[in-house]
Task: structure prediction
Amino acid sequence: MSKKIIYGRIGNIDKLIHEPSRLLIASILSGVKEADFNFLLSHSKLSKGNLSVHLSKLEKAGYVNANKRFINKMPNTVYNLTKEGRKAFDSYLKNMEGIIRKKKEK
Amino acid sequence: MYAENNNVDKVKKVMGDVKASWWEDGMVEIISGIVFIVVAGLLSVMEFVSNEKLQAVLGVVCVSVMVALAVLARWFKRQLKEKYVWPKTGYSKPGIGKKPSLLYILSFEFLVLYVGLILYIFLKFKTTNQIPVGIASFYLVSTKSNWFFAGFIGFFIFFVYFAVYLASGLKRFLLTGLLALGSGGVCAFFSGNESMIAITIMVTIGIYSLFTGIPRFLISRRGSQDE
Result:
């Protein structure tokens, strides 16, 4: 594959998901149907503030949906990847796999 | 840069770890252990029944209970996880839905019993040697076929654990499966009774599951993150 095509693929990479922390959050959420904040915190090892900020960005972009509720009078927010979010994540992985495969072939 | 980082492999590892975390709070082991010990109890009751036809009926009931418990176990495990493990470790929903309907359970029951009956009819009329009679005995007729019966039960448990523990790794799968086959084989060596073989395997695996599940559950209850 030519360099032009490889660079074209690189240019198509979703920068929102590509950011390491957000990629980690998207990876975690793609492995489950939904997860609460504590689960994301324990699996991502991000700080609470950091996690909140990245979740907000993903939510703003429509990739993540946040459902706030109360369980036994305790606030609990549950997150899940939206349809667009899953599509964007799958597309990102496909893109990355394509780039890596072509680089290996070269 | 992208080839060196290889984000894709890292992503797949994260997804795998997240899915595996569902199995790490001991719930699967505790429920499996209870299921096996309940079934061992049912098989023990069968031992006290001398009437062969009644034994056959009890055998079918035992299989039906095993199938129903297996179908309900996933739903039940999730309820327990929601109640006893969350919110210490955080909660994720892995995609297991609502409680299985009666129709769903009955469909599995029918499938297992139908396959067993077909196998019995086919093999009984096809040959008279011990192996097919051993298969049939699990469903309908009590007979002596120690080694094969032990192997059959062991293989069943082996397969169940392969399916259930695939996400947890090969080590646990091999250990549990070999424990089942080993305990069945040892019992078959000393005992002439296929029910004892099945009971031994069930109790061994049940106790092992509880021994591994309870400590894991207690650890997960303490929580894994700073407050």
The beta strands of chain A are 34-36, 64-71, 74-81.
